[in-house]
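Handout, section 4.2: multi-component inputs.
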Amino acid sequence: MKPILLVDFGSTNTKVTAVDVDGYRILGTATAYTTVETDINEGLDNAMKILEKTTGPLEFEERYACSSAAGGLKMVSIGLVPELTAQASREASLGAGAKVWKTYSFQLTKGDLKEIEEYHPDIILLTGGTDGGNTENILYNAQALSTLSYDCPIVIAGNRNAADRCEEILEGRSIYVCENVMPGLGELNVIPAQKQIREIFLKRIVQGKGLSRAADLVSGIIMPTPSAMMEAMELLAEGWEDHPGIGELIAVDLGGATTDVYSVAEGNPVNVGTVMKGLQEPYAKRSVEGDIGMRYSVHGILEAAGDRKLSLLSGIQRKRIPELVDFLGSHTDYIPDNEEMKHMDFALACAAVETAVTRHAGTLEQVYTPTGLTFLQSGKDLRKVKYVVATGGALIHGEKAEEIAKKALYDPQTPNSLRPENAEILIDKKYILAAMGLLSQYYPVAALEIMKKEIADYGHNE
Amino acid sequence: MDKKKLVIGVIGADVHAVGNSILQHAFEDAGFEVINLGVMVSQEEYISAAIETAADGILVSSLYGHGELDCRGLRDKCDEAGLKGILLYVGGNIVVGKQPFDEVERRFKAMGFDRVFGPGTAPETTIAALYEDFGIEKPEEE
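Output:
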Protein backbone atom coordinates (compact mmCIF):
# COMPACT_ATOMS: atom_id res chain seq x y z
CA MET A 1 0.00 0.00 0.00
CA LYS A 2 1.18 3.49 -0.87
CA PRO A 3 -1.09 6.15 0.68
CA ILE A 4 -1.16 9.59 -0.89
CA LEU A 5 -3.05 12.62 0.37
CA LEU A 6 -4.85 15.00 -1.97
CA VAL A 7 -6.16 18.30 -0.69
CA ASP A 8 -8.56 20.75 -2.33
CA PHE A 9 -8.63 24.12 -0.59
CA GLY A 10 -12.00 25.41 -1.74
CA SER A 11 -13.45 28.83 -0.99
CA THR A 12 -15.76 27.35 1.65
CA ASN A 13 -14.59 23.79 2.22
CA THR A 14 -11.26 22.07 2.47
CA LYS A 15 -11.65 18.58 1.08
CA VAL A 16 -9.16 15.80 1.68
CA THR A 17 -8.97 12.54 -0.20
CA ALA A 18 -6.68 9.68 0.79
CA VAL A 19 -5.85 7.16 -1.91
CA ASP A 20 -3.79 4.03 -2.21
CA VAL A 21 -2.03 4.31 -5.55
CA ASP A 22 -0.88 0.69 -5.48
CA GLY A 23 -4.37 -0.71 -4.98
CA TYR A 24 -6.13 1.91 -7.12
CA ARG A 25 -8.57 2.69 -4.35
CA ILE A 26 -9.93 5.48 -2.19
CA LEU A 27 -9.04 5.09 1.47
CA GLY A 28 -11.31 7.86 2.66
CA THR A 29 -12.53 11.41 2.16
CA ALA A 30 -13.39 14.24 4.57
CA THR A 31 -14.40 17.89 4.52
CA ALA A 32 -13.99 20.82 6.90
CA TYR A 33 -14.39 24.60 6.63
CA THR A 34 -11.59 26.46 4.90
CA THR A 35 -9.73 28.82 7.20
CA VAL A 36 -7.92 31.15 4.85
CA GLU A 37 -8.31 34.24 7.06
CA THR A 38 -6.51 32.77 10.03
CA ASP A 39 -4.31 29.86 9.13
CA ILE A 40 -5.25 27.64 6.25
CA ASN A 41 -3.73 24.68 8.06
CA GLU A 42 -6.43 24.79 10.73
CA GLY A 43 -9.10 23.75 8.26
CA LEU A 44 -6.78 21.14 6.87
CA ASP A 45 -6.05 19.76 10.36
CA ASN A 46 -9.76 19.57 11.07
CA ALA A 47 -10.39 17.69 7.84
CA MET A 48 -7.51 15.35 8.60
CA LYS A 49 -8.95 14.53 12.01
CA ILE A 50 -12.28 13.62 10.44
CA LEU A 51 -10.51 11.56 7.80
CA GLU A 52 -8.50 9.60 10.31
CA LYS A 53 -11.65 8.66 12.20
CA THR A 54 -12.62 6.47 9.27
CA THR A 55 -9.26 5.42 7.91
CA GLY A 56 -7.24 5.24 11.10
CA PRO A 57 -3.79 6.86 11.21
CA LEU A 58 -2.05 6.90 7.85
CA GLU A 59 1.54 7.60 6.88
CA PHE A 60 1.32 9.61 3.66
CA GLU A 61 4.29 9.30 1.37
CA GLU A 62 3.24 12.23 -0.78
CA ARG A 63 0.79 15.12 -0.44
CA TYR A 64 -0.56 17.36 -3.20
CA ALA A 65 -3.05 20.18 -3.19
CA CYS A 66 -5.10 22.36 -5.47
CA SER A 67 -6.80 25.57 -4.47
CA SER A 68 -9.65 27.85 -5.35
CA ALA A 69 -9.53 29.62 -1.99
CA ALA A 70 -8.97 33.35 -1.58
CA GLY A 71 -10.89 34.20 -4.74
CA GLY A 72 -9.29 31.53 -6.89
CA LEU A 73 -7.02 32.59 -9.73
CA LYS A 74 -8.30 36.02 -10.75
CA MET A 75 -7.62 36.98 -14.33
CA VAL A 76 -8.37 39.61 -16.92
CA SER A 77 -8.19 38.73 -20.63
CA ILE A 78 -7.41 41.23 -23.36
CA GLY A 79 -7.71 40.76 -27.11
CA LEU A 80 -8.48 42.66 -30.28
CA VAL A 81 -11.77 41.69 -31.99
CA PRO A 82 -14.37 40.47 -29.46
CA GLU A 83 -15.30 37.25 -31.27
CA LEU A 84 -11.71 36.45 -32.31
CA THR A 85 -8.61 37.04 -30.17
CA ALA A 86 -10.56 38.41 -27.19
CA GLN A 87 -12.62 35.22 -27.18
CA ALA A 88 -9.50 33.06 -27.65
CA SER A 89 -7.87 34.86 -24.75
CA ARG A 90 -10.91 34.21 -22.57
CA GLU A 91 -11.01 30.52 -23.52
CA ALA A 92 -7.32 30.19 -22.70
CA SER A 93 -7.76 31.72 -19.25
CA LEU A 94 -10.86 29.70 -18.41
CA GLY A 95 -9.18 26.49 -19.52
CA ALA A 96 -6.26 27.28 -17.21
CA GLY A 97 -8.72 27.25 -14.31
CA ALA A 98 -8.92 30.99 -13.85
CA LYS A 99 -11.83 33.10 -12.79
CA VAL A 100 -12.05 35.53 -15.72
CA TRP A 101 -13.48 38.68 -14.29
CA LYS A 102 -13.64 40.56 -17.56
CA THR A 103 -12.55 40.26 -21.18
CA TYR A 104 -11.53 43.44 -22.98
CA SER A 105 -11.33 44.01 -26.71
CA PHE A 106 -9.80 46.76 -28.85
CA GLN A 107 -7.87 49.55 -27.10
CA LEU A 108 -8.00 49.84 -23.33
CA THR A 109 -9.39 53.11 -22.07
CA LYS A 110 -8.42 54.98 -18.92
CA GLY A 111 -11.67 53.73 -17.39
CA ASP A 112 -10.75 50.14 -18.23
CA LEU A 113 -7.37 50.58 -16.58
CA LYS A 114 -8.98 52.01 -13.48
CA GLU A 115 -11.29 48.99 -13.36
CA ILE A 116 -8.38 46.59 -13.73
CA GLU A 117 -6.48 48.45 -11.04
CA GLU A 118 -9.44 48.13 -8.66
CA TYR A 119 -10.13 44.49 -9.44
CA HIS A 120 -6.44 43.72 -8.93
CA PRO A 121 -6.14 40.53 -11.03
CA ASP A 122 -3.49 37.92 -10.27
CA ILE A 123 -2.56 37.58 -13.93
CA ILE A 124 -3.36 39.49 -17.11
CA LEU A 125 -3.43 37.70 -20.45
CA LEU A 126 -2.58 40.17 -23.21
CA THR A 127 -3.33 39.09 -26.78
CA GLY A 128 -4.31 40.62 -30.09
CA GLY A 129 -3.59 40.05 -33.75
CA THR A 130 -2.83 36.86 -35.62
CA ASP A 131 0.85 36.17 -36.31
CA GLY A 132 1.89 38.77 -38.87
CA GLY A 133 -1.43 40.54 -38.39
CA ASN A 134 -2.41 43.60 -36.39
CA THR A 135 0.33 44.93 -34.10
CA GLU A 136 -1.01 48.39 -33.34
CA ASN A 137 -3.63 47.29 -30.83
CA ILE A 138 -1.48 45.01 -28.66
CA LEU A 139 1.27 47.63 -28.56
CA TYR A 140 -1.21 50.27 -27.50
CA ASN A 141 -2.54 48.00 -24.76
CA ALA A 142 0.97 47.06 -23.62
CA GLN A 143 1.66 50.78 -23.30
CA ALA A 144 -1.54 51.21 -21.29
CA LEU A 145 -0.67 48.31 -18.98
CA SER A 146 2.78 49.80 -18.38
CA THR A 147 1.04 52.40 -16.22
CA LEU A 148 -0.43 49.87 -13.76
CA SER A 149 0.56 50.75 -10.22
CA TYR A 150 1.45 47.21 -9.16
CA ASP A 151 3.54 44.49 -10.76
CA CYS A 152 0.80 42.24 -12.08
CA PRO A 153 2.21 39.29 -14.03
CA ILE A 154 1.36 39.75 -17.71
CA VAL A 155 1.32 36.85 -20.14
CA ILE A 156 1.87 38.10 -23.68
CA ALA A 157 0.34 35.70 -26.18
CA GLY A 158 -0.56 37.80 -29.19
CA ASN A 159 0.88 38.52 -32.63
CA ARG A 160 4.42 37.16 -32.46
CA ASN A 161 5.68 40.04 -34.55
CA ALA A 162 4.71 42.42 -31.77
CA ALA A 163 6.11 40.36 -28.87
CA ASP A 164 9.57 41.95 -28.84
CA ARG A 165 8.18 45.45 -28.75
CA CYS A 166 5.68 44.51 -26.05
CA GLU A 167 8.59 43.24 -23.99
CA GLU A 168 10.42 46.53 -24.44
CA ILE A 169 7.36 48.55 -23.49
CA LEU A 170 6.73 46.48 -20.36
CA GLU A 171 10.36 46.19 -19.36
CA GLY A 172 10.94 45.86 -15.64
CA ARG A 173 7.60 44.16 -15.06
CA SER A 174 6.87 40.46 -14.63
CA ILE A 175 6.17 39.52 -18.22
CA TYR A 176 6.01 36.14 -19.87
CA VAL A 177 6.00 35.82 -23.65
CA CYS A 178 4.51 32.72 -25.18
CA GLU A 179 2.92 31.51 -28.40
CA ASN A 180 -0.04 33.37 -29.86
CA VAL A 181 -3.47 32.15 -28.71
CA MET A 182 -4.57 32.64 -32.32
CA PRO A 183 -1.62 32.18 -34.68
CA GLY A 184 -3.82 32.10 -37.78
CA LEU A 185 -7.34 33.40 -38.18
CA GLY A 186 -9.81 31.16 -36.35
CA GLU A 187 -6.98 28.83 -35.32
CA LEU A 188 -6.95 28.32 -31.56
CA ASN A 189 -3.69 27.63 -29.73
CA VAL A 190 -4.45 27.97 -26.05
CA ILE A 191 -2.19 25.36 -24.48
CA PRO A 192 1.13 27.30 -24.36
CA ALA A 193 -0.57 30.27 -22.66
CA GLN A 194 -2.31 27.92 -20.22
CA LYS A 195 0.97 26.26 -19.28
CA GLN A 196 2.47 29.66 -18.62
CA ILE A 197 -0.50 30.70 -16.48
CA ARG A 198 -0.23 27.52 -14.44
CA GLU A 199 3.48 28.11 -13.89
CA ILE A 200 2.91 31.64 -12.65
CA PHE A 201 0.15 30.36 -10.39
CA LEU A 202 2.61 27.93 -8.85
CA LYS A 203 5.49 30.36 -8.43
CA ARG A 204 3.79 33.54 -7.42
CA ILE A 205 0.13 33.35 -6.64
CA VAL A 206 0.22 30.66 -4.02
CA GLN A 207 2.68 32.62 -1.89
CA GLY A 208 0.70 35.81 -2.18
CA LYS A 209 -2.49 34.35 -0.81
CA GLY A 210 -1.47 33.01 2.55
CA LEU A 211 -1.60 29.57 1.06
CA SER A 212 2.12 28.97 1.26
CA ARG A 213 1.90 27.99 4.90
CA ALA A 214 0.06 24.96 3.69
CA ALA A 215 3.02 24.17 1.51
CA ASP A 216 4.91 22.84 4.53
CA LEU A 217 2.30 20.19 4.99
CA VAL A 218 1.74 19.30 1.40
CA SER A 219 4.35 18.94 -1.33
CA GLY A 220 2.92 22.10 -2.81
CA ILE A 221 -0.24 23.55 -4.25
CA ILE A 222 0.19 22.55 -7.80
CA MET A 223 -2.82 23.97 -9.61
CA PRO A 224 -6.09 25.85 -9.37
CA THR A 225 -8.98 23.49 -8.64
CA PRO A 226 -10.83 23.97 -11.97
CA SER A 227 -7.63 23.10 -13.75
CA ALA A 228 -7.44 19.86 -11.73
CA MET A 229 -11.04 19.14 -12.75
CA MET A 230 -10.14 19.66 -16.40
CA GLU A 231 -7.15 17.32 -16.10
CA ALA A 232 -9.34 14.66 -14.51
CA MET A 233 -11.95 14.91 -17.27
CA GLU A 234 -9.38 14.71 -20.04
CA LEU A 235 -7.81 11.67 -18.46
CA LEU A 236 -11.15 9.93 -17.91
CA ALA A 237 -12.15 10.58 -21.53
CA GLU A 238 -8.89 9.75 -23.21
CA GLY A 239 -7.26 7.15 -20.99
CA TRP A 240 -3.55 6.71 -20.47
CA GLU A 241 -1.28 4.62 -22.69
CA ASP A 242 -2.81 1.12 -22.79
CA HIS A 243 -5.47 1.97 -20.21
CA PRO A 244 -8.48 3.10 -22.24
CA GLY A 245 -10.64 6.06 -21.26
CA ILE A 246 -14.40 6.09 -21.51
CA GLY A 247 -14.59 8.41 -24.52
CA GLU A 248 -16.01 11.87 -25.11
CA LEU A 249 -17.84 13.40 -22.17
CA ILE A 250 -19.15 16.55 -20.58
CA ALA A 251 -19.06 17.42 -16.88
CA VAL A 252 -21.19 19.80 -14.85
CA ASP A 253 -19.96 21.22 -11.56
CA LEU A 254 -22.87 22.88 -9.80
CA GLY A 255 -21.69 25.18 -7.04
CA GLY A 256 -23.05 27.84 -4.75
CA ALA A 257 -21.62 30.80 -6.66
CA THR A 258 -20.92 29.49 -10.17
CA THR A 259 -21.68 26.56 -12.40
CA ASP A 260 -18.78 25.20 -14.43
CA VAL A 261 -19.22 23.03 -17.48
CA TYR A 262 -16.42 21.03 -19.08
CA SER A 263 -16.48 19.21 -22.38
CA VAL A 264 -13.83 16.88 -23.69
CA ALA A 265 -15.09 16.36 -27.22
CA GLU A 266 -14.31 17.39 -30.78
CA GLY A 267 -17.82 18.70 -31.37
CA ASN A 268 -17.55 18.61 -35.16
CA PRO A 269 -20.77 18.70 -37.18
CA VAL A 270 -22.66 15.41 -37.16
CA ASN A 271 -24.47 16.02 -40.45
CA VAL A 272 -22.88 16.67 -43.80
CA GLY A 273 -23.68 20.00 -45.36
CA THR A 274 -23.41 21.88 -42.06
CA VAL A 275 -21.51 25.15 -42.24
CA MET A 276 -19.45 26.11 -39.15
CA LYS A 277 -19.77 29.66 -37.85
CA GLY A 278 -17.70 31.57 -35.34
CA LEU A 279 -14.53 30.66 -33.53
CA GLN A 280 -13.35 27.08 -33.36
CA GLU A 281 -13.62 25.90 -29.76
CA PRO A 282 -10.99 23.99 -27.79
CA TYR A 283 -11.24 20.19 -27.63
CA ALA A 284 -11.11 20.45 -23.85
CA LYS A 285 -13.34 23.40 -23.11
CA ARG A 286 -14.39 24.91 -19.80
CA SER A 287 -17.11 27.48 -19.39
CA VAL A 288 -18.07 29.26 -16.20
CA GLU A 289 -21.49 30.71 -15.55
CA GLY A 290 -20.87 33.37 -12.94
CA ASP A 291 -24.57 34.16 -12.64
CA ILE A 292 -25.69 30.57 -12.10
CA GLY A 293 -25.21 29.10 -8.65
CA MET A 294 -27.35 27.56 -5.92
CA ARG A 295 -26.82 30.25 -3.26
CA TYR A 296 -24.70 33.34 -3.97
CA SER A 297 -25.94 33.45 -7.58
CA VAL A 298 -29.40 32.02 -7.06
CA HIS A 299 -31.08 35.14 -8.45
CA GLY A 300 -29.34 34.47 -11.74
CA ILE A 301 -31.10 31.13 -12.03
CA LEU A 302 -34.47 32.79 -11.50
CA GLU A 303 -33.60 35.37 -14.11
CA ALA A 304 -32.44 32.81 -16.65
CA ALA A 305 -35.20 30.25 -16.15
CA GLY A 306 -38.13 32.42 -15.03
CA ASP A 307 -40.55 31.78 -12.18
CA ARG A 308 -42.95 29.81 -14.37
CA LYS A 309 -40.38 27.13 -15.14
CA LEU A 310 -39.20 26.95 -11.52
CA SER A 311 -42.80 26.63 -10.42
CA LEU A 312 -43.41 23.76 -12.84
CA LEU A 313 -40.27 21.96 -11.71
CA SER A 314 -40.86 22.42 -7.99
CA GLY A 315 -44.66 22.37 -7.74
CA ILE A 316 -44.43 25.56 -5.68
CA GLN A 317 -46.72 28.48 -6.50
CA ARG A 318 -45.27 31.04 -8.85
CA LYS A 319 -45.64 34.02 -6.56
CA ARG A 320 -43.84 32.27 -3.72
CA ILE A 321 -40.74 31.51 -5.85
CA PRO A 322 -39.05 34.96 -5.64
CA GLU A 323 -39.50 34.91 -1.86
CA LEU A 324 -37.72 31.59 -1.52
CA VAL A 325 -35.00 32.68 -3.94
CA ASP A 326 -34.38 35.81 -1.84
CA PHE A 327 -34.08 33.66 1.25
CA LEU A 328 -31.56 31.32 -0.36
CA GLY A 329 -29.53 34.22 -1.72
CA SER A 330 -29.10 35.68 1.75
CA HIS A 331 -28.60 32.39 3.60
CA THR A 332 -25.71 30.97 1.67
CA ASP A 333 -24.96 28.12 4.05
CA TYR A 334 -28.59 26.97 4.28
CA ILE A 335 -29.31 23.27 3.78
CA PRO A 336 -32.96 22.40 3.04
CA ASP A 337 -34.74 21.19 6.19
CA ASN A 338 -38.30 20.95 4.89
CA GLU A 339 -40.14 19.52 1.90
CA GLU A 340 -40.84 22.86 0.27
CA MET A 341 -37.21 23.93 0.30
CA LYS A 342 -36.12 20.54 -0.98
CA HIS A 343 -38.43 20.98 -3.94
CA MET A 344 -37.15 24.49 -4.46
CA ASP A 345 -33.52 23.37 -4.45
CA PHE A 346 -34.37 20.59 -6.86
CA ALA A 347 -36.01 23.00 -9.30
CA LEU A 348 -33.13 25.45 -9.02
CA ALA A 349 -30.55 22.73 -9.62
CA CYS A 350 -32.45 21.50 -12.69
CA ALA A 351 -32.67 25.00 -14.12
CA ALA A 352 -29.02 25.72 -13.32
CA VAL A 353 -27.77 22.58 -15.08
CA GLU A 354 -29.96 23.18 -18.09
CA THR A 355 -28.95 26.83 -18.42
CA ALA A 356 -25.22 26.23 -17.95
CA VAL A 357 -25.02 23.31 -20.37
CA THR A 358 -27.14 25.11 -22.95
CA ARG A 359 -24.73 28.04 -22.84
CA HIS A 360 -21.74 25.70 -23.13
CA ALA A 361 -23.03 23.58 -26.00
CA GLY A 362 -23.19 24.73 -29.60
CA THR A 363 -26.29 25.63 -31.53
CA LEU A 364 -27.63 24.59 -34.90
CA GLU A 365 -29.62 27.00 -36.99
CA GLN A 366 -31.66 26.17 -40.08
CA VAL A 367 -31.25 28.61 -42.91
CA TYR A 368 -33.25 28.52 -46.12
CA THR A 369 -30.98 29.75 -48.87
CA PRO A 370 -31.84 30.19 -52.53
CA THR A 371 -30.01 26.90 -53.08
CA GLY A 372 -31.97 24.98 -50.44
CA LEU A 373 -31.89 24.20 -46.76
CA THR A 374 -28.56 24.68 -45.01
CA PHE A 375 -27.52 24.24 -41.38
CA LEU A 376 -25.32 26.70 -39.56
CA GLN A 377 -23.48 25.39 -36.51
CA SER A 378 -21.86 27.60 -33.87
CA GLY A 379 -19.84 26.03 -31.08
CA LYS A 380 -19.56 22.34 -30.37
CA ASP A 381 -22.03 19.65 -31.41
CA LEU A 382 -22.20 17.46 -28.30
CA ARG A 383 -25.13 15.31 -29.40
CA LYS A 384 -23.05 12.15 -29.80
CA VAL A 385 -21.25 12.52 -26.46
CA LYS A 386 -21.77 9.38 -24.39
CA TYR A 387 -21.34 10.53 -20.79
CA VAL A 388 -22.44 13.37 -18.54
CA VAL A 389 -20.43 13.58 -15.32
CA ALA A 390 -22.15 15.40 -12.47
CA THR A 391 -20.22 16.93 -9.59
CA GLY A 392 -20.38 19.78 -7.08
CA GLY A 393 -21.74 19.74 -3.55
CA ALA A 394 -25.17 21.00 -4.52
CA LEU A 395 -25.65 18.22 -6.99
CA ILE A 396 -24.12 15.10 -5.54
CA HIS A 397 -25.56 15.52 -2.07
CA GLY A 398 -29.08 16.10 -3.34
CA GLU A 399 -31.48 13.20 -3.43
CA LYS A 400 -32.25 13.32 -7.10
CA ALA A 401 -28.79 13.84 -8.55
CA GLU A 402 -29.42 11.75 -11.62
CA GLU A 403 -32.70 13.43 -12.43
CA ILE A 404 -31.05 16.84 -12.11
CA ALA A 405 -28.06 15.83 -14.23
CA LYS A 406 -30.41 14.65 -16.97
CA LYS A 407 -31.28 18.29 -17.56
CA ALA A 408 -27.92 18.47 -19.32
CA LEU A 409 -29.30 16.27 -22.08
CA TYR A 410 -30.82 17.17 -25.43
CA ASP A 411 -34.37 18.42 -25.17
CA PRO A 412 -36.71 18.05 -28.16
CA GLN A 413 -38.36 21.29 -27.00
CA THR A 414 -35.16 23.16 -27.82
CA PRO A 415 -33.82 21.24 -30.82
CA ASN A 416 -31.30 23.95 -31.68
CA SER A 417 -29.22 23.30 -28.57
CA LEU A 418 -26.64 20.60 -29.37
CA ARG A 419 -26.57 18.82 -26.01
CA PRO A 420 -25.89 15.06 -25.62
CA GLU A 421 -28.76 12.96 -26.93
CA ASN A 422 -28.25 9.59 -25.28
CA ALA A 423 -25.63 10.03 -22.63
CA GLU A 424 -25.24 7.97 -19.51
CA ILE A 425 -25.22 9.97 -16.25
CA LEU A 426 -22.22 9.43 -13.98
CA ILE A 427 -22.27 10.90 -10.49
CA ASP A 428 -19.14 11.87 -8.59
CA LYS A 429 -20.65 10.55 -5.36
CA LYS A 430 -17.50 10.78 -3.24
CA TYR A 431 -16.56 14.17 -4.68
CA ILE A 432 -13.13 13.02 -5.79
CA LEU A 433 -12.71 14.42 -9.31
CA ALA A 434 -10.50 17.41 -8.49
CA ALA A 435 -8.36 15.14 -6.31
CA MET A 436 -8.02 12.70 -9.21
CA GLY A 437 -6.91 15.53 -11.48
CA LEU A 438 -4.18 16.30 -8.98
CA LEU A 439 -3.21 12.68 -8.66
CA SER A 440 -3.08 12.32 -12.45
CA GLN A 441 -0.06 14.62 -12.54
CA TYR A 442 2.00 11.96 -10.79
CA TYR A 443 0.02 8.71 -10.97
CA PRO A 444 -2.13 8.90 -14.10
CA VAL A 445 -2.96 5.19 -14.22
CA ALA A 446 -4.07 5.10 -10.58
CA ALA A 447 -6.17 8.26 -11.08
CA LEU A 448 -7.79 6.82 -14.18
CA GLU A 449 -8.55 3.43 -12.68
CA ILE A 450 -9.97 4.98 -9.51
CA MET A 451 -12.25 7.25 -11.55
CA LYS A 452 -13.38 4.38 -13.72
CA LYS A 453 -14.16 2.34 -10.65
CA GLU A 454 -15.77 5.05 -8.54
CA ILE A 455 -17.59 7.05 -11.16
CA ALA A 456 -17.90 5.35 -14.49
CA ASP A 457 -18.70 1.85 -13.48
CA TYR A 458 -20.14 0.93 -10.13
CA GLY A 459 -19.36 -2.59 -9.04
CA HIS A 460 -16.68 -2.88 -11.68
CA ASN A 461 -14.49 -5.92 -11.11
CA GLU A 462 -10.77 -5.68 -11.06
CA MET B 1 8.75 42.44 -49.11
CA ASP B 2 5.98 40.95 -47.04
CA LYS B 3 3.21 39.19 -48.88
CA LYS B 4 0.02 41.17 -49.33
CA LYS B 5 -2.83 39.67 -47.35
CA LEU B 6 -6.26 39.00 -48.81
CA VAL B 7 -9.42 38.04 -46.97
CA ILE B 8 -11.70 36.03 -49.27
CA GLY B 9 -15.06 34.28 -48.93
CA VAL B 10 -18.55 33.86 -50.33
CA ILE B 11 -20.97 36.40 -48.89
CA GLY B 12 -24.49 36.02 -47.52
CA ALA B 13 -26.48 32.79 -47.59
CA ASP B 14 -24.46 31.54 -50.56
CA VAL B 15 -22.94 28.06 -50.26
CA HIS B 16 -20.99 27.85 -53.55
CA ALA B 17 -17.72 26.49 -52.21
CA VAL B 18 -15.77 25.34 -55.28
CA GLY B 19 -14.89 28.57 -57.04
CA ASN B 20 -13.82 30.08 -53.75
CA SER B 21 -11.30 27.28 -53.17
CA ILE B 22 -9.97 27.70 -56.71
CA LEU B 23 -9.48 31.41 -56.01
CA GLN B 24 -7.55 30.65 -52.83
CA HIS B 25 -5.06 28.50 -54.74
CA ALA B 26 -4.81 30.94 -57.62
CA PHE B 27 -4.10 33.88 -55.28
CA GLU B 28 -1.59 31.91 -53.25
CA ASP B 29 0.24 30.85 -56.41
CA ALA B 30 0.31 34.49 -57.42
CA GLY B 31 2.21 35.34 -54.24
CA PHE B 32 -0.54 36.49 -51.90
CA GLU B 33 -1.31 35.33 -48.39
CA VAL B 34 -4.95 34.24 -48.32
CA ILE B 35 -7.32 34.09 -45.37
CA ASN B 36 -10.25 32.07 -46.66
CA LEU B 37 -13.43 32.44 -44.62
CA GLY B 38 -15.32 29.86 -46.70
CA VAL B 39 -18.99 30.14 -47.53
CA MET B 40 -21.92 31.99 -45.93
CA VAL B 41 -19.73 34.81 -44.69
CA SER B 42 -21.31 37.87 -43.13
CA GLN B 43 -20.01 41.39 -43.61
CA GLU B 44 -18.94 41.47 -39.98
CA GLU B 45 -16.83 38.35 -40.41
CA TYR B 46 -14.88 39.85 -43.32
CA ILE B 47 -14.24 42.94 -41.24
CA SER B 48 -13.23 41.10 -38.05
CA ALA B 49 -10.87 38.90 -40.02
CA ALA B 50 -9.32 41.87 -41.79
CA ILE B 51 -8.75 43.72 -38.51
CA GLU B 52 -7.19 40.80 -36.69
CA THR B 53 -4.89 39.81 -39.57
CA ALA B 54 -4.16 43.36 -40.73
CA ALA B 55 -5.26 42.41 -44.25
CA ASP B 56 -4.64 44.57 -47.31
CA GLY B 57 -7.78 43.66 -49.21
CA ILE B 58 -11.19 42.02 -48.93
CA LEU B 59 -12.35 40.05 -51.97
CA VAL B 60 -16.03 39.19 -51.88
CA SER B 61 -17.52 36.43 -54.02
CA SER B 62 -21.20 35.98 -54.69
CA LEU B 63 -22.71 33.47 -57.09
CA TYR B 64 -26.37 33.18 -56.25
CA GLY B 65 -27.62 36.50 -57.52
CA HIS B 66 -28.24 38.24 -54.20
CA GLY B 67 -24.87 39.97 -54.01
CA GLU B 68 -26.36 43.39 -54.38
CA LEU B 69 -28.33 43.03 -51.15
CA ASP B 70 -25.53 41.27 -49.28
CA CYS B 71 -22.83 43.78 -50.18
CA ARG B 72 -24.71 46.94 -49.32
CA GLY B 73 -22.99 48.95 -46.61
CA LEU B 74 -19.80 46.89 -46.48
CA ARG B 75 -17.59 49.87 -47.29
CA ASP B 76 -19.30 52.00 -44.65
CA LYS B 77 -18.80 49.32 -42.05
CA CYS B 78 -15.13 49.01 -43.02
CA ASP B 79 -14.73 52.74 -42.53
CA GLU B 80 -16.50 52.51 -39.20
CA ALA B 81 -14.26 49.65 -38.06
CA GLY B 82 -11.09 51.56 -38.83
CA LEU B 83 -10.30 49.79 -42.11
CA LYS B 84 -10.23 53.04 -44.04
CA GLY B 85 -9.09 52.68 -47.63
CA ILE B 86 -8.86 48.88 -47.55
CA LEU B 87 -9.05 47.40 -51.06
CA LEU B 88 -12.53 45.97 -51.78
CA TYR B 89 -13.28 43.71 -54.74
CA VAL B 90 -16.46 41.88 -55.61
CA GLY B 91 -17.01 39.26 -58.27
CA GLY B 92 -19.25 36.45 -59.56
CA ASN B 93 -22.91 36.33 -60.51
CA ILE B 94 -23.49 39.33 -58.33
CA VAL B 95 -26.94 40.43 -59.56
CA VAL B 96 -30.22 38.81 -60.48
CA GLY B 97 -30.65 37.87 -64.13
CA LYS B 98 -28.80 39.22 -67.13
CA GLN B 99 -28.14 42.92 -66.76
CA PRO B 100 -25.73 45.11 -68.70
CA PHE B 101 -22.42 44.77 -66.87
CA ASP B 102 -21.46 48.43 -67.02
CA GLU B 103 -24.59 49.33 -65.04
CA VAL B 104 -23.89 46.63 -62.50
CA GLU B 105 -20.31 47.81 -62.20
CA ARG B 106 -21.44 51.38 -61.66
CA ARG B 107 -23.84 50.38 -58.88
CA PHE B 108 -21.23 48.34 -57.02
CA LYS B 109 -18.60 51.05 -57.41
CA ALA B 110 -21.08 53.48 -55.94
CA MET B 111 -21.29 51.12 -52.95
CA GLY B 112 -17.56 51.59 -52.48
CA PHE B 113 -16.03 48.60 -54.25
CA ASP B 114 -12.74 49.36 -55.97
CA ARG B 115 -13.23 46.72 -58.63
CA VAL B 116 -16.18 44.71 -59.88
CA PHE B 117 -15.87 41.47 -61.84
CA GLY B 118 -18.64 39.85 -63.82
CA PRO B 119 -19.53 36.21 -64.39
CA GLY B 120 -16.85 34.04 -65.98
CA THR B 121 -13.90 36.20 -64.93
CA ALA B 122 -10.66 34.20 -64.95
CA PRO B 123 -8.56 34.38 -61.75
CA GLU B 124 -5.73 35.84 -63.85
CA THR B 125 -7.78 38.96 -64.53
CA THR B 126 -8.29 39.57 -60.81
CA ILE B 127 -4.65 38.82 -60.06
CA ALA B 128 -3.52 41.33 -62.68
CA ALA B 129 -5.79 43.92 -61.07
CA LEU B 130 -4.37 43.16 -57.62
CA TYR B 131 -0.80 43.59 -58.90
CA GLU B 132 -1.79 46.91 -60.39
CA ASP B 133 -3.64 48.21 -57.33
CA PHE B 134 -0.89 47.17 -54.90
CA GLY B 135 1.81 48.43 -57.28
CA ILE B 136 3.44 45.02 -57.43
CA GLU B 137 5.45 44.14 -60.47
CA LYS B 138 4.17 41.09 -62.28
CA PRO B 139 6.56 38.19 -61.59
CA GLU B 140 8.47 36.77 -64.54
CA GLU B 141 6.89 33.75 -66.22
CA GLU B 142 8.94 30.65 -65.52
